[in-house]
C-alpha cells in the first residue's frame, strides 16, 4: 500500500503541471498504475468431505456414457418417447425461461461494470437564452428586450474514473461471480424440471401397467360372476356366491376408474412442464415400463463439482468476497480525469470558428471526510453477507450429501424389498391356482376363492407400486448427484 501511495503521489504531481502534453502523459501514467486489491484473497470455504458415501457400499461404480456426460441423463431409461418429452421441456419450459432471462440480466450487469473501467465520451450541443436586468425598472419597461442574449454551445467531453483501489474491478468481479451463480441457478432449475418430468412420466407408465392388470382382472371377475350366476340358476351354487362375485367385480371396477384421474394428473403435469396447455397434450398408453437403470454413483468430491446448486452457492461466496473490497474502497479517495472542449458563441452564423473555442482539462480528487460511521457499517454488512453465503454454501453441501445418502439407502431397501415382494407374488399366484382347482372340484366354497384372488391382486399391485417407488428414487438419486451437469463444460460453452 505504501508503494502504491508513492506512485499515486507522483502521478498527482504530474497532473498539477501546466502543460497539456504532460497532462495527457500523466493520465496515461495513472491509468497504468496497478490498483490495490482491498478484498480478501478468495479461498473455497473449508469442508469436511467424506471419502465415500456411507450407503454406497455394495454399489457398482458405473461410468456414464458419452451421451450422459453431455447431460442427457434421462437416456439411462432407454425410452425414446421420454427423450422427446425432455427435449421439448428444454426448449419450452417457462420456469427455465425465467431463469434464462435472469442470467441474461446478470450478463448485462457484467458488461456494464466492465465498461466502467474505460473513459466515457459525451457530446453536448445546445442553445441557451438568458436575460439580465438593467437595474432600472423604467428602462426595462421601455425596452423589454434589453439584456436578452442567445448562446450556442457545442462541447465534447471525456471523463474517466481511475480505479486506483480496485473498486471498479472488484465490482466487476462480484458481478461476474453473480452471473456465474445465475447460470448455475438456471442449470439447477432445468435439472429440477427435468427430474420432475421424468418422475411423472415413469409414474404414468406404472399406472398404465396397473390399468392393464386391473382390466385383465375385471375381465376374469366378469367370467367368474357369469359362472356363479349360471351355477345359481342351475341350483348348484347359492346366492351368497353370486353376491361375493359381484362385490369383488364392482370393487375392482372402482379401482380401475380411480386410476383415470391419477393418470390425468401426471399427464397434465407433463404438459405444463413442456410449456403446453393440458388441453393441447395427450400421451397414449404404452405397454412397456422403462427398465430400472444402473445409476452412476459419483465420489463425494465430484458431487461438489457436478451439482449446480452447490456451484451456485460457491459463486455467491465469491461475489460476497469481492463486495468486501468494494466496501473497503469507500475509505479511499476517488480520482477522476476530465477533459472538455468545444465552441461557444452568441451568434449562430460564426458559432464554429477558432476564436470561439474553449477547452479545460484537470483531475478531481474526492474523499469523504465524515459520514458518521456509514462506511464502517457497510464494510461490516459486507463481511456479514460473506459469512452468510459461506454458511449457505456449507449447508448446500451437507444437504447434497444427505440427499444422496437418503436415496442410496432408499434404493437399497427397495431392492431388498422387491426380492421378497416377488417371492410373495409367486406364492400368491400358486395359491390362487391351487384354490381355483379345489373350487372346480367342489372341495371348497367360492368365498375361499375370493379371498385368495384378493390377496393375489394385492400382491400384483404391490409389486408395481414398489417398482414405481424404485424408478422415482432412481431419478431423485441422479438429480441429487448432479445429473449430467458439468459446471466447467457448461460455462466454457457460454
UniProtKB/TrEMBL annotation:
Q: Which UniProt keywords apply?
A: Cell outer membrane, Coiled coil, Lipoprotein, Membrane, Palmitate, Transmembrane, Transmembrane beta strand
Question: What Pfam families does the database record attribute to this sequence?
Answer: OEP
Q: What is its main location?
A: membrane
- Localization (cell): Cell outer membrane
The record's annotation in InterPro entries points to: MdtP/NodT-like (IPR010131), OMP_efflux (IPR003423)
* Residues forming coiled coils: 82-116
Query: Topology versus the membrane, per the UniProt entry?
Result: Lipid-anchor
* Protein family according to the UniProt entry: Belongs to the outer membrane factor (OMF) (TC 1.B.17) family.
Q: What is this protein called?
A: Efflux transporter outer membrane subunit
Query: What is the scientific name of the source organism?
Result: Pseudomonas soli
